[in-house]
Design a protein that fits this description.
heterodimer; A: 320 residues; mainly alpha; two-stranded antiparallel ribbon; 13 helices; globular; B: 254 residues; alpha/beta; Rossmann fold; six-stranded mixed β-sheet; 25% strand; binds adenosine-5'-triphosphate; binds magnesium ion
């Protein structure tokens, strides 16, 4: 690696994009107990929508809105039938969705460049005359701005009566419906929001990398997002972001190992093994994840939420 | 007023070969407090499950305020004004005791967009409703536990929480499935006094499954007796406990 700082900044950008994905899965799984195993499908659709629109010279803001809308609608359309069936069917439907979408993109060259993908995607913010490093920092600012916005939207929602309904659905669907909540409607909404957020992350990813191809969207992406939520702590949005940092950091550092260690085994295998060990260790010693769900009354207004988050982060930094 | 609020007409529910509810017809007057007794496995809980839409009856009809409600989903039945509490407490473990209560109320912040953009609106509502919830928790001796995860409650306390949740939603009718099972006798009697108060002050109709008949006497207007999926007797509590059939299948065996 030529420039370690670049490598670090790149990791930070990736962690931010995956932080959004992790928050969106946390919204679905952590709060509502919707096991979405098709995260990569929405991520991919968002990325491709942005890529195609960008090649038609539309600006990032338009592409993002379109990515959000399309992934949101696809989220609704796929969850409508799946949610009517038993829970397991949702998982199967979603895994299949990811694979089918990838097959479509691979085979329909006219649509999205087939296996070659699409390249030359313009970055969201273009300021002429900047160095590579400066451009990277602008990217990070953009990504983290969106991450923070997503974080606060989710926090405001889960700390509202609406969020209380979601947690009720997670704990006991019969109680939710006994007390007048249309469980099906809530699940579809959560799916729409979670998918739209993943689509937005996909768009960010596309404009950051500058190129997309079907091989970037393997099922392993879904599993990485799941790992982030499980490790960080389901039903804790800070935990979800922390999980994104951990998994990203861990994958990067284990990839680096191969440059410095002479191991008698393939570094890719080593990475898989180490990741497995990490997950097992955390699940074994801290089944609720690193940051536990806070079971307490929610603070009313936004500034109180921000203040309490600030204290939380502070005490967390002090402890570690 | 003699208008029935709830009417069941020849309800039948089978589980495989077992006929859990076998042609139940009954009618409950608006504003009454009515008991339902019967041996274990006689079909009381199954009847409640049919009335609240958890099960669809194999045949028969249910009317609530003259409107047919069998076949509706539980959440639709709630919005008609019929609410129930479960025999086995269904506690939301990873939520505070207070949240366990507040979930039963129609809240303007239950919808997505108002939850995000009309916070003032529902925050005010939350404040009012919270005071009411605290009041009822205090009555049941749970106020100290208000903000703890509900999983930390004892079995009896969970039972109390289950009742409190139904009471706070202020529907027009509540079905209670053995509300005082596992509750100490003094509190159990207090709870029945509370039911009477609710019935009188808020004009809420109550339909209560109870095994301890002595709790019902003096409190309820009417008792139905169930046996093997059928209503075998109904009437004033004093008359019912002297009914020969009832003594044979129920009281005699206790
Ligand atoms: N979901 C179910 N599947 C199969 N059988 C059931 C089911 N629910 C109830 N039953 C059977 O139906 C019969 C009536 O049960 P129910 O729970 O209604 O009795 P109950 O009168 O409430 O009894 P208890 O006083 O013990 O609560 C029982 O024989 C029970 O085994
Ligand atoms: Mg029962």
């Amino acid at each position: 690696m030529a420039d370690p700082l670049m490598y670090l900044l790149d990791a930070v950008a990736y962690a931010g994009i995956f932080g959004i994905l992790s928050i969106s899965l946390n919204f679905e799984y952590g709060y509502t107990n919707l096991a979405n195993f098709g995260k990569v499908a929405f991520f991919m659709i968002g990325a491709y929508v942005t890529a195609i629109m960008s090649s038609l010279k539309y600006p990032f803001i338009v592409n993002s809105i379109l990515a959000i809308l399309i992934t949101g609608v696809i989220g609704v359309l796929t969850s409508l039938p799946a949610l009517r069936l038993k829970e397991d069917f949702l998982a199967i439907t979603m895994i299949t969705l990811g694979e089918v979408m990838k097959l479509i993109i691979k085979n329909e060259e006219w649509l999205a460049g087939g296996v070659w993908g699409i390249s030359g995607i313009a970055p969201a913010i273009v300021i002429p005359g900047l160095t590579f490093r400066e451009r990277l920092i602008i990217q990070i600012a953009l990504i983290y701005g969106i991450l923070i916005a997503c974080y606060f939207i989710c926090e405001l929602i889960v700390k509202s009566p609406y969020g209380r309904v979601l947690k009720t659905i997670r704990e006991d669907e019969l109680i939710a419906s006994t007390y007048g909540k249309n469980v099906f409607k809530y699940k579809v909404q959560v799916f729409a929001v979670g998918s739209a957020m993943s689509g937005l992350a996909g768009g960010l990813f596309a404009q950051y990398i500058g190129t997309v191809n079907p091989y970037m969207f393997e099922p392993t992406v879904t599993f990485a997002i799941w790992m982030m939520v499980i490790l960080g702590g389901p039903a804790n949005n800070l935990g979800a972001i922390l999980g994104a940092f951990m998994v990203e950091g861990f994958q990067r550092s284990s990839r680096l190992l191969k440059d410095y260690l002479n191991l008698p085994l393939d570094p890719v295998n080593l990475q898989v093994m180490l990741t497995a060990i990490l997950v097992i260790t955390v699940v074994f010693y801290r089944p609720q994840g690193l940051l536990k769900e806070k079971i307490k009354p929610y603070e009313g207004s936004l500034h109180k939420i921000i203040a309490s988050k600030f204290m939380e982060v502070k005490s967390w930094i002090r402890r570690s | 007023m003699d208008t029935p609020i709830l009417t069941a007409d020849s309800l039948v529910k089978k589980f495989g070969g077992l006929i859990a509810v076998n042609g139940v017809t009954l009618s409950i007057k608006k504003g009454d407090m009515v008991g339902l007794i019967g041996p274990n496995g006689s079909g009381k809980t199954t009847l409640f499950n049919i009335l609240t839409g958890v099960y669809k009856p194999d045949s028969g009809k249910v009317f609530f305020n003259r409107e047919r409600i069998d076949g509706l989903q539980p959440h639709q039945i709630y919005h008609k004004g019929l609410v129930r509490a479960f025999q086995m407490p269904r506690i939301l473990q990873r939520m505070t005791v207070l949240d366990n209560l507040l979930i039963s109320v129609k809240n303007p912040g239950d919808k997505f967009l108002p939850a995000l953009f009309k916070r003032k609106n529902w925050l005010k509502f939350e404040n009012d409703i919270r005071n009411k919830a605290l009041e009822i928790l205090e009555f049941l001796g749970l106020e100290k536990h208000c903000y703890v995860p509900a999983a930390e409650l004892s079995g009896g306390q969970m039972k109390l929480l289950e009742i409190a949740r139904a009471l706070i939603s202020e529907p027009s009718m509540i079905l209670l499935d053995e509300p005082t099972a596992g509750v100490n006798p003094v509190l159990a009697n207090d709870i029945y006094m509370k039911f009477r108060e609710i019935k009188k002050n808020m004009d809420i109709t109550l339909f209560i499954v109870e095994h301890r008949i002595e709790l019902l006497i003096g409190h309820v207007d009417k008792v139905h007796v169930m046996h093997q999926g059928k209503i075998i007797a109904e009437g004033k509590p004093d008359d019912v406990i002297n009914n020969e059939d009832v003594i044979k299948v129920y009281l005699g065996s206790v």
